[in-house]
Amino acid sequence: MVSTASGKNGTWRNWGGNVSARPARQVTPASVEELAAAVRRAREDGLKVKAVGTGHSFTSIAATDGVLIRPQLLTGIRDIDRTSMTVTVEAGTPLKRLNAALAREGLSLTNMGDIMEQTVSGATSTGTHGTGRESGSIAAQIRALELVTADGSVLTCSEQENPDVFAAARVGLGALGVVTALTFAVEPLFLLTAREEPMPLERVLAEFDQLWAENEHFEFYWFPHTGSTNTKRNNRSAGPERPVGRLAGWFEDEFLSNGVFQLAQWAGRAAPATVPAIARISSRALSARTYTDIPYKVFTSPRRVRFVEMEYAVPRAALTETLRELKAVVDRSGLRVSFPVEVRTAPADDITLSTASGRDSAYIAVHMFRGTPYQAYFTAAERVLTAHEGRPHWGKVHTRDADYLARVYPRFGEFTALRDRLDPERLFQNDYVRRVLGA
């Protein structure tokens, strides 16, 4: 087990650059036993414990001045069970490594988010999701998990074993213990055909229910200060495989979506008055395209332009009204918003604090370029989103507290009661967890 004291260079920062912490010590356990020992030692020393993945959360959910557990040595596939069609993977495994390893085995997750830099435990603990008509978040694909609790014991949880813990710990916010392994449902590798095309916002909103119903995975990006969107429909395909060509892929996904977009963000940050004009150009930059490939190459894409993000889940039936209200707020506010708004969906699931818990959901995500003041825009957006009983993504900027969250999550008390039982001394608490769950 590697343990480093937090000295001059002991500051931890998240990917978005908006959260930092100075832990008393950082621990990199190489086994579940070493991790459990680190938890017990922290408890004896009177230090709080948080585990951190790749820092892709924009909230301080993983920040601590106690013991920071880094799981990068807990990686790799433990087991593939082709009878039950599951894969068990160590908690620190990055999603990109899991996706590539599964593809080599002729297997795939059913659905995934649009980036794959996160660790499997970090992604699931915060409720990371993609878009899907019938298939839910990454956490909704978990079939079992292993958890080190506050007394250093190791719990195995599934629908059959410790089912109450399983219901909550799939999206556990790091508040119930440290996840050490996850078992996911997998299926034989399949092909997806992606159809990307620009479409007027009003048409997307008018036809949203139809677009959602006709496609397994539908999402769109609206460019503020314009009436334009870029839509993406992903559906299963019998083939043949027709991936994006190397040159076309580099031009659209790297040069336009990352390189030119980065320059546009710099220009907008330096001269905010130019943002609406830049938005109009950006909304016309990407042309329609269709391609067919294996799932992770269709669902995910590189995100090299750093940003800060807020995302809320609203009832799917409230999406069009909510987005129209958000557009009206931006149009009349004088705000200059240089990043597109991302809209996705998920079916209801049975996870206690999943943002889709018990209700079909639509996600509205707002972003600002890293280093650009975002508070005024996010405050205005949050006012609209909370008016529709929005549930904030646990890993993205928001100002909600336990009182609000208890109103929008019917099973909130179930989660806090389990936390009282598993962590009565609040070993896994930090300021963020205290705010969202209560003391």
Structural account:
Helix 7 packs antiparallel against helix 8 (275-285) and helix 10 packs antiparallel against helix 11. The protein has helices at residues 32-44, 95-104, 120-125, 163-169, 201-206, 208-214, 246-270, 275-285, 295-299, 319-333, 375-386, 402-408, 412-422, 431-437, and strands spanning 2-5, 12-13, 20-21, 25-28, 49-51, 67-69, 77-81, 86-90, 107-108, 142-148, 154-158, 178-185, 187-188, 191-200, 217-222, 228-237, 289-293, 307-315, 341-346, 361-369, 391-392. Strand 15 (217-222) and strand 16 form a beta hairpin. It is 32% helix and 25% strand. The chain starts with a strand and ends with a helix. It is an alpha+beta fold and 439 residues long. The strands form 5 sheets. Strands 17-14-16-15-19-20-18-21 form an 8-stranded antiparallel β-sheet, sandwiched between helices.
Please give the structural blueprint:
Blueprint: E1 2-5, E2 12-13, E3 20-21, E4 25-28, H1 32-44, E5 49-51, E6 67-69, E7 77-81, E8 86-90, H2 95-104, E9 107-108, H3 120-125, E10 142-148, E11 154-158, H4 163-169, E12 178-185, E13 187-188, E14 191-200, H5 201-206, H6 208-214, E15 217-222, E16 228-237, H7 246-270, H8 275-285, E17 289-293, H9 295-299, E18 307-315, H10 319-333, E19 341-346, E20 361-369, H11 375-386, E21 391-392, H12 402-408, H13 412-422, H14 431-437
Parallel strand pairs: 4-6, 5-6
Antiparallel strand pairs: 1-4, 2-3, 7-8, 8-12, 9-13, 10-11, 10-12, 14-16, 14-17, 15-16, 15-19, 18-20, 18-21, 19-20
Helix pairs in contact: 7-8, 10-11
